[in-house]
Specification:
Layout lengths: L2 E3 L4 E3 L10 E6 L4 E9 L6 H15 L1 E5 L3 E5 L5 E12 L2 E11 L5 E9 L5 H12 L5
Antiparallel strand pairs: 1-2, 3-4, 4-9, 5-7, 6-7, 7-8, 8-9
Length: 142
């Protein structure tokens, strides 16, 4: 039996587990930052690097004035055993600038891509960057 857990509920889905393409958006009002957690399938013969490069190429096509650092390899989570790709992005969202730290990883033991975006409409402060590090370091994969 497939089960799905969210912060609010645990749902019995019967015998079939659907593809999880959910987005969670968490807003930190005092910081004026947002954390978006996105999940999707990772095509069977596609590597994390291939998937992340594809995602960045899509962003370059869809967003105006996008600048992006080269992705770097990072080890994330409590045990620092999961490899991810991290980049800093800046782009226009409507008529407002958006500053974003982005992390992508393959979920351990799964053909699934997890992407975290930490964003703000003004430049990220040192306190914001420290908060982002705490988030990355606290990840526990199930």
């Amino acid at each position: 039996m497939a089960r799905y857990l969210t912060q609010d509920l645990n749902v019995d889905l019967g015998d079939e587990m659907p593809d999880d393409t959910t987005l969670n958006m968490l807003r930190f009002r005092e910081r004026q930052t947002t954390l978006v957690i996105a999940r999707s399938a990772l095509p069977e013969h596609q590597s994390l690097d291939d998937a992340y490069t594809f995602q960045l190429d899509l962003l370059h096509k869809r967003l105006t004035a996008l600048t992006c650092t080269d992705p770097v390899t990072v080890l994330i989570g409590k045990d620092k055993q999961v490899e991810g790709r991290e980049a800093a992005l800046q782009f226009m969202h409507g008529n407002q600038p958006m500053y974003q730290l982005q992390l992508a990883c393959q979920l351990p033991g799964q053909q699934r891509l997890l992407v975290l975006n930490y964003s703000k409409h003004s430049a990220l402060t040192e306190a914001d960057i420290s908060h982002w590090r705490v988030i990355k370091d606290s990840l526990l994969f199930s």
